[in-house]
Amino acid sequence: MKSTSTSPTEVASEEEQYYDKISDLKAFDETKAGVKGLVDAGITKVPRIFFSPADEFDKVSDPGKNEFYVPVVDLDGIDKDPILRKNIVDIVRDASETWGFFQVINHGIPDTVLEEMLDGVRRFYEQDTEVKKEWYTRDGSKTVVYNSNFDLYRAESANWRDKTYCNMAPNPPSPDELPKSCSDILVEYSRKVRELGRFLFELLSEALNLNPSHLIDMNCAEGLAILYHYYPACPEPELTLGASKHADYDFLTVLLQDHIGGLQVLYQNQWVDIPPVPGALVVNIGDLLQLISNDKFKSSQHRVLANNVGPRVSVASFFTTGLMPSSKIYGPIKELLSQDNPPKYKETTVREYSLHYNAKGLGGHSQISILLSFRCPA
């Protein structure tokens, strides 16, 4: 659990009269070097802009309580044994309804590809800063968007990480539109994770007692954005977070994380670790899948702790068309509705919901509270 021995609020109160947040944010942003630039400069104290507010669920664990473990689903042989497939669908259904998270192993993406993708992330962030600056932008319409904290000027506090966003589908970029340090593996990994995503949508469709192609036919697998992150070692990890508490805005996320750990999901009002499993990928339900499943599946709050041993690297594959213009409307799936299960949400486009999400940023109230603004009147 995240330590609460030092209160960022108490530290801040002593310096508040000297603190100009906007100036500090601009100064940090204008370096175009991100959090890694701070670490490379030898910083020994976490700047005030990164101080995370206290979280109500940060409390000492009760040793009397049972330990919780996010389900790990073995997909080996699933297409050869109908009974095994049914059992796996049952596990996926239960995990999606309760955790909103599960891990998959034997998913068909070779370990060599996973390792090369992580190595590609390291190559990108550890190259010369002047080379990286070519990609640094806050223009979300770009094919590649590298910066630190997409919500830097909106969030309550900045996160101790750098991020790069690449739109890989439905209009895949050419390799020369991607950073040379990782372009080849980005293309290969994206192709393989799209294949896995389509298969996962089949399992999730079956878990909703729908035709296996239902979610694919709804174009849930149409868009893909790859977000690769770099979490440098932090000199005071108790004061900040690698990623603030949030739920994902997409239909589904497939996450590749390295061996360091730090990912946590909020489960039964407790922060539960999702430890790295060799060769595994973490899968989690996004807000839009919660919407169209009419709350059958759960888009859970999660976060990443800062660490003092990093860098930690991860690659999140978001199945969404994001801000891409589209007239397609999404609402609760009609086949799931009944007199006892009326629609809980109004219809929306992916772009409309993504704009809401981006305007809010990470942290603070659950994004579900914004989804609830789409609720149908009683």
UniProtKB/TrEMBL annotation:
Keyword Oxidoreductase: yes
GO biological process, one term: coumarin biosynthetic process
Keywords: Iron, Metal-binding, Oxidoreductase, Vitamin C
InterPro entries: DIOX_N, IPNS-like_FE2OG_OXY, IPNS-like_sf, Oxoglu/Fe-dep_dioxygenase_dom
Domain Fe2OG dioxygenase: 222-322
Family: Belongs to the iron/ascorbate-dependent oxidoreductase family.
Protein name, entry field: 1-aminocyclopropane-1-carboxylate oxidase-like protein 1
